[in-house]
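From the shared-data thread, chain only:
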Amino acid sequence: MLANKRKRARQSWVRAAKIQASGATRLRDCLIIEISDSGVRLQAASGRIINRFTLLLAGGRRDCRVIWRTGNEAGAEFIDTEVGTEFVEGSVMRQ
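Structure, as tokens:
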């Protein structure tokens, strides 16, 4: 069994979202499986999740960097500043 190396506890939170590569206009579908104030676990609708991306949800966006990946799932940390963040309907989003 893999050791839990998370800095913060994550909560189960299944929601549809979009990911966007830096400078790209095309959005890709994904599913958020878990989220915390420091990161997120995602499942890509198709293909592989890129190393750096912006996570888009109704109510906000967060810049992310992939820490691990297995198949079409990835764990990513939020790399933008935490100043001005808050929980929005159970998720952490930058205002």
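The radius of gyration is 12 Å.
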